[in-house]
Amino acid sequence: MGGVLVPFLTDWGKISLNQVLLLQSWFMFWIFALEVPTGVIADRFGRKWSIVASVICLITAVFIYTSKPSFTVFMLAEFVWALAGSLQSGAEEALIYDTLEEKGESGKSKKIFGRMESMDMAGLMIAAPLGSLIAAHFGLRVPMLAMVLPLTIALLIACALEEPVSLHKETRKNYFEILKNGTRFFREHRVLKILAFDMISIGSITYFWVWLYQPLLRGAGLNIAYFGLAHAALVAIQILVMNNFERLENILGSKKNLIFFTALATGVMLILAGLTTSIPLLLIAITIGAGLGLARRPLFINYMNKYIPSQERATVLSSISMIRTFMLVVLNPIVGQMVNWSLHFTTMTLGALAILFAFISKVEEDHLID
Question: Quick one: angle between helices 313-341 and 175-188, nearest 10?
Fold first, then answer.
């Protein structure tokens, strides 16, 4: 659905872009609220069954979404989708790591997780153009409904998974403990706060590329059949950047320069997208701006992990994730209201904010430890 998600919601669903972003606030809120309860399910019943339940919820959400074009129905679907995401979150990675550990091959985890993320993005590159073609020929509802087929295959695979005999049980903390420990650690660690601020500020702005690029392309007159190709292109740039961090650092002269350049490029490309209705220029802005912006997160996670002691790692990273989620809960309706007034002005405003944050960032070269 990546290439036609906004047209599906606005054309078939008959809701405004403002309501689309309100739905995302609703979705983010439930991701925030369900993170701990669903983690308990994974610990109590096993990671395998948490994944199985996640896929069942996804299939259910698809049927709810395609049942009727209604904002209320979509809210129910987004809740079930958030439940699915929460059930899946961490369970797959934990199951893989536990399996490797049981086989005495935990040293391969970095390679395996990298391969897993690359395959995920490769799937997006194939699926997004395919979904656009299906939508162009059979209507916007069909790509969403067609998701049931791969999800059913995923369900069969999930049911066939074998859980390790001896699982490494993680201690899951409640919300108050996560917030308390995370706040204390941030208050006492200046460098981590600087890195987290840069990642969250630019990351929150980059997030809106996903929801704005399709309306921008439609406004420029691009046929919906090609939306998926644009999505595939920005994913390709993201993969390219993520696999060449060291090479880009050498080209730009330092790690700090790469951090600054990716933030600045995101902002400049957003402004370009807001200023033009030229399809070639829009495609350049989208692929470079979104691709560079979305590739920043794993780079920051790598640097932040160097400062976090192992016993605090899960707590601090959860706190950072919760802050980002909360920011998007707040920002989605604000940006939605701005889009109602002017899509292009909103895009340029986000670009200007990204440039501002790029220049006020206090990240220094000695903060970026490999």
Answer: 90
- Per the structure, the complete domain to which residue 143 belongs is given by 1-165
**Is the pLDDT assigned to residue 357 strictly greater than 90?**
yes
Q: How far apart are CA 248 and CA 105, in angstroms?
A: 31
Q: Is 181 found in the same domain as 37?
A: no
Handedness of CA 23, 42, 92, 57 (dihedral sign): negative
Q: Which residues contact 201 (CB under 8 A, 6 or more apart)?
A: 357
Would you list the DSSP string of 74-112?
A: HHHHHHHHHHHHHHHTTHHHHHHHHHHHHTT-GGGHHHH
Q: Is the pLDDT of residue 168 over 50?
A: no
Q: Are both 123 and 206 inside the same structural domain? A: no
- Better pLDDT: 127 or 351: 351
- Of the two residues 44 and 330, the one the predictor is more confident about is 330
My answer on whether 226 and 193 are in the same domain is: yes
Measured distance CA(334)–CA(331) in Å, rounded: 5
Evaluate if residue 327 carries a pLDDT over 80.
Answer: yes
Q: Which two tokens stand for residue 240?
A: 């390219």
The 8-class DSSP code of residue 165 comes to S
What's the pTM? Answer: 0.79
108 versus 277: the higher-pLDDT residue is 277
Rounded Cα distance, 130 and 147, in Å: 12
328 or 118, higher pLDDT: 328
DSSP calls for 238-270: HHHHHT-HHHHHHHHSSHHHHHHHHHHHHHHHH
* Whole-number Å distance between alpha carbons of 232 and 127: 8
Q: CA 301, CA 312: separation in Å to the nearest integer?
A: 14
Q: How many distinct structural domains can be found in the chain?
A: 2
Where does the chain have alpha helices with state H? 5-7, 17-45, 47-65, 71-88, 91-102, 109-138, 141-146, 148-160, 175-188, 190-207, 209-219, 227-242, 245-252, 255-275, 279-294, 296-305, 313-341, 343-360
Count how many residues are written for the chain: 370
Task: List Cβ neighbours of 225 (8 Å cut-off, separation of 6 or more).
Answer: 132, 133, 135, 136
What CATH number is given to the structural domain containing 319? 1.20.1250.20
Nearest 5 degrees, angle CA 335-CA 68-CA 64? 85
